[in-house]
Design a protein that fits this description.
- By secondary structure, this protein is of the alpha/beta class.
- Among the domains are: 583-747, Alpha-Beta Horseshoe (Leucine-rich repeat, LRR (right-handed beta-alpha superhelix)), CATH 3.80.10; 797-865, no CATH class.
- It contains eleven helices and 50 strands.
- The strands form eight sheets. The chain has a 26-stranded mixed sheet, with no helix packed on it. It has a ten-stranded parallel sheet with strand order 24-26-28-30-32-34-36-38-40-42, with no helix packed on it.
- Strand 2 (74-76) and strand 3 form a beta hairpin.
- The longest helix is centred in the first third of the chain and has 30 residues, at 3-32.
- The structure holds 2-acetamido-2-deoxy-beta-D-glucopyranose (11 copies).
- The site of one 2-acetamido-2-deoxy-beta-D-glucopyranose has 5 residues, from loops.
Length: 865
């Protein structure tokens, strides 16, 4: 018998006896239900005692009497019966356990796997407990999202068996200890998104010869020049993530590339600012995912990009419009997503799509804000897997291809701010989001408008004509419908099923008919804008049932009759405009029901159109809409505008309880009686216009308590007595000396009439008040519809990484900044044309803006202030 056969026999013998022992043990266990080692059970119980809040009861199965091997989160070795795995991560629960990590864990001598991720557990003073460094059998250690503080600890470098270490999203700070290089068995190292950590020398990485995955995102590496050289010595690397590391440059050349396994390279948000072509990574042909967002690389892409035949994801967005993409991409047959937004200096969409013909798996194509010209080719239809396309804000012209309807994977299409013309084609049934505002689309909507999955439809600011087809009612999931600034006419189709509709924006068309009865069934409506149309008839009492409404904009129509008292049932309402209609009768008395317009409510609910920062797409949509209306648009504005109607009677005294109201316009009506005495308690008031009424009596002196007021007009009433004084009021008068005009009985400083004589009026001033257009009602039109954003992209990103919360919000904020900047630039060419026309109204002369001339922004620019 040679030695090897002896070995085999021995082995068989050994395994056999082992089998006997274990099966005997299992036998025992099942007969007597023997629990785990008592010392380990005690250790676990004292770990449990350290937890002071386990609101979800994750550890509720941990009890004295039971076998600890069967407790939630515990795994025992089937051979030894000892605890080898402790996993009490509470990811995806939202309710972390809170407490301290008990040193009793040290008794778990055989523990190989410890996962405390996302719990609010800590050692003394929030630091990491030293004893963790003595758990020498650990192979997997996951402490991510545990809010430890203090310096990045060195204790882990004693855990020489570690293969997996995740310290991401902890609150460690300071220098990353080079002792981590002692962990020579590491395959997976994630030390990303700690708090303020840095490294000035990464040569210790070279010792991690088995490393496959490294994530050092948000660790400051601004002094590191040799990163490519260091990682090049670790040929096992498959994933390198260095987002937001302040890496100074990627301009290196590596003679001999060892990184033949590399699949993922992520360099997001490191400002390089040098030519793209000089980067070190272009020759790595194994790359599947390359992310260069926010690196500000410029110039032409190198030909090598065309040779990255494994490439599945390329993100080259937000790089400052200085790159040129002329590379032949015909070999990139694996490509699934390509993001080039805000990065190219110019381009031709026809060309780009032609170049991508091999990429039959393409799923996301995003090239917004790239100064692209050309037309959408019919061959687009061949991307049968295309799910997301964003070409917002380019100069793409021509028609939307008819073949669109056959792109059956398409869910999100963003084409806004281009020069597309012609009729909107039939939509693919899969479509969820279509943003095509600010184009030159014309003609009617297709009669067979069938998009049952549609959630967002924004086609505002085009030249679309005709009626809205009845078939739109089939889009039962729709949340946002924006048809404003078009040439629509006729009545709204009677849809009864749009129960999810939150935003309905129809302003600036020629819609007619009564207040649409179908709205009665839209029980989720938050934002309703019917302004600038030809709706008529009375406002129905059931308007008070739309209790979710926050913004109700009905101005510039022909509604008549009373304002139904039931409107004050809309307790969530923060903005109400009924301006420029033919409404008559009294202002409802119960105004104080507008709870959202009082500061008390603001304190409770954290304000207007507040959307919780949850991972909720809808909140994002909402934020878009908000941004779209501009930072000083409807949303900040807590206001009531009833101007340009025929309202009579007194201003209800209750109005003064709306102390969150920043804008109140009751001008151009027939209101009489006095200005409420305690008007000064409307502390948030910024703009108050009571002009052109029959108000009489004195101006209450409390008016001078309105410390935020920047716009006041009391002209053309029948006010008498002394003008109240106050620094704020005096300043206002200097800016707008006509604000008291046409009140023959007013006197005193700063007016020229001297009080005691009470003499008859010399009506000073001109009639400029008349020319003052109805700007305050139009404050948001001027802002145009902003461009809309790829929340889908954000959403996609969320799906990509397991936990994205923090970077996600940073990203979102960043994008909002972009949009704001965009808005500020007022990038749209003049598309809305208005001309001011005078027209006799029942109560007075009013201005009326109609039709087409000049840029809205110019005309109403003042109004937003
Ligand atoms: C032993 O455990 C099994 C299942 O875990 C259970 O059905 C049985 O009642 C237990 N026996 C005793 C004696 O507790
Ligand atoms: C720890 O738990 C989290 C959440 O269940 C999981 O995502 C993570 O992969 C686990 N860590 C390890 C090392 O398995
Ligand atoms: C325990 O945590 C839950 C969820 O995080 C929280 O709602 C609850 O108030 C906490 N209880 C105590 C006593 O802190
Ligand atoms: C651990 O790392 C430190 C610093 O890199 C080094 O001095 C020490 O020798 C290492 N210890 C072992 C056991 O490798
Ligand atoms: C990223 O690093 C910066 C400074 O280095 C720090 O202020 C910030 O908190 C870190 N971000 C996260 C999400 O940890
Ligand atoms: C990696 O490539 C360099 C040349 O850049 C070479 O000197 C080195 O030996 C290689 N390292 C490994 C581990 O293959
Ligand atoms: C847009 O592209 C054209 C050429 O197609 C170029 O002349 C122009 O400067 C570009 N505009 C910007 C803002 O880059
Ligand atoms: C865009 O490319 C297509 C196809 O190469 C070409 O026919 C068209 O003229 C180009 N358009 C512009 C505006 O350059
Ligand atoms: C869409 O596909 C159908 C069936 O394949 C075909 O008959 C139709 O012509 C296509 N429509 C367009 C506009 O390409
Ligand atoms: C309008 O309000 C009145 C008084 O609150 C109420 O009786 C009536 O039912 C309401 N009408 C509708 C249609 O809700
Ligand atoms: C103005 O008010 C006075 C009383 O304050 C009243 O006598 C007079 O008729 C009013 N004038 C107009 C035009 O309403």
């Amino acid at each position: 018998m040679d030695r090897s056969s002896a070995k085999v026999v021995l082995l068989i013998g050994a395994s056999f006896s082992f089998f006997l022992i274990t099966s005997a043990r299992q036998q025992l266990q099942s007969t007597f239900n023997i629990s785990c080692t008592p010392s380990e059970r005690d250790a676990l119980l004292s770990f449990k005692q350290g937890i002071i809040n386990d609101s979800l009861g994750l550890l509720s199965s941990w009890r004295l009497s039971q076998d600890c091997c069967s407790w939630t989160g515990i795994t025992c070795s089937s051979k030894t019966g000892r605890v080898v795995k402790l996993d009490v991560s509470s990811f995806l629960t939202d309710a972390p356990m809170v407490g301290q990590i008990s040193p009793s864990l040290l008794s778990l001598d055989y523990l190989e796997y410890l996962n405390l991720s996302t719990n609010f557990l800590a050692g003394p003073n929030g630091s990491v407990p030293e004893f963790l460094g003595s758990m020498s059998n650990l192979i997997h250690l996951d402490l991510s999202y545990v809010p430890f503080s203090g310096r990045v600890p060195t204790v882990f470098s004693n855990l020489s068996k570690l293969e997996y270490l995740d310290l991401s999203f902890t609150s460690f700070s300071g220098r990353v200890p080079p002792q981590l290089g002692n962990l020579t068995n590491l395959r997976y190292l994630d030390i990303s998104w700690m708090h303020n950590a840095y490294s000035t020398d990464v040569s210790w990485l070279r010792s991690l010869v088995l490393l496959e995955y490294i994530d050092m995102s948000n660790i400051t590496l601004s002094k590191i020049l040799d990163l490519p050289v260091v990682v090049n010595d670790i040929p096992t690397l498959k994933h390198i993530k260095l987002l937001n590391c302040s890496l100074p440059s990627a301009n290196q050349s590596i003679i001999h590339l060892n990184l033949t396994e590399l699949e993922e390279l992520d360099l997001w948000d490191n400002y390089f600012g040098h030519p793209i072509a000089s980067c070190w990574f272009w020759k790595i042909t194994s790359i599947k995912s390359l992310r260069l967002y926010g690196t500000y690389l410029s110039g032409p892409f190198p030909k090598a990009l065309g040779e990255m035949v494994s490439l599945q994801h390329l993100d080259f967005s937000y790089n400052g419009n200085a790159a040129i993409m002329t590379v032949d991409l015909k070999k990139l047959c694996e490509l699934e997503s390509i993001y080039l937004d805000k990065s190219l200096s110019s381009g031709n969409i026809t060309d780009l799509i032609e170049k991508l013909q091999c990429s039959s798996k393409l799923n996301c194509l995003s090239s917004s804000s790239n100064n692209m010209t050309g037309t959408l080719p019919n061959s687009m239809e061949l991307f049968t897997r295309l799910n997301y396309i964003d070409l917002t804000n380019n100069s793409i012209s021509g028609l939307i291809p008819q073949g669109f309807v056959n792109m059956t994977s398409l869910e999100v299409v963003q084409l806004s701010s281009n020069q597309l013309r012609g009729q909107l084609p039939l939509l693919p049934r899969s479509l969820k989001v279509l943003h095509a505002q600010m184009n030159f689309l014309s003609g009617n909507l297709p009669a067979k408008f069938r998009a049952p999955n549609l959630v967002n439809l924004i086609i505002s600011s085009n030249y679309i004509t005709g009626q809205v087809p009845q078939t739109i009612c089939e889009s039962e999931n729709i949340k946002l419908l924006d048809l404003s600034n078009n040439l629509f006419e006729g009545e709204l189709p009677h849809c009864s099923r749009l129960r999810n509709l939150h935003f309905l924006l129809l302003s600036n068309n020629s819609f007619s008919g009564k207040f649409p009865p179908c709205l009665q069934s839209f029980s989720s409506l938050v934002f309703l804008d019917l302004s600038w149309n030809k709706f008529y008839g009375s406002l129905p009492k059931w308007i008070g049932n739309l209790v979710t409404l926050r913004i109700l904009h009905l101005s510039h129509n022909m509604f008549n009759g009373d304002i139904p008292v039931n409107i004050t049932d809309l307790t969530e309402l923060q903005y109400l405009s009924l301006a420029d209609n033919n409404l008559s009768g009294l202002i409802p008395l119960s105004l104080s029901h507008f709870n959202e317009m009082t500061l008390k409510a603001a304190g409770d609910s954290n304000s207007a159109l507040a959307f919780d920062e949850s991972l909720d797409i809808f909140s994002l949509e909402m934020k878009h809409e908000i941004l779209k209306y501009g930072s000083h648009g409807v949303v900040d504005m807590i206001g009531i505008d009833l101007s340009l109607n025929c309202l009579t009677g007194e201003i209800p005294g209750e109005i003064v309880s709306l102390n969150r109201l920043s804008n109140l316009n009751l001008s151009w009506n027939g209101l009489s009686g006095k200005i409420p005495d305690n008007i000064g308690s409307m502390k948030s008031m910024e703009s108050l216009d009571l002009s052109r009424n029959n108000l009489s009596g004195i101006i209450p002196s409390s008016l001078s308590d309105l410390t935020y007021i920047s716009d006041l007009d009391l002209s053309y009433n029948n006010l008498t007595g002394t003008v109240p004084s106050g620094r704020q009021l005096d300043t206002l008068y200097v800016e707008n000396p006509t604000m008291y005009n046409g009140n023959t009985g007013l006197c005193g400083h700063p007016l020229q009439n001297i009080c005691p004589n009470n003499n008859s009026a010399h009506e000073q001033g001109d009639h400029r008040g008349q020319e003052k257009d109805s700007s305050s009602m139009l404050f948001y039109y001027g802002l145009g519809s902003g461009f809309v954003v790829g929340y889908w992209l954000v959403f996609c990103a969320l799906l990509f990484k397991k936990l994205w919360r923090i970077p996600y919000f940073r990203l979102v904020d960043k994008m909002y900044d972009e949009w704001n900047r965009k808005e500020a630039k007022g990038c749209r060419k003049g598309r809305f044309k208005y001309e001011v026309m005078w027209e006799t109204h029942c109560c007075s002369v009013k201005s009326h803006a109609l039709g087409d001339s000049g840029e809205a922004k110019e005309l109403f620019g003042e109004a937003g202030k």
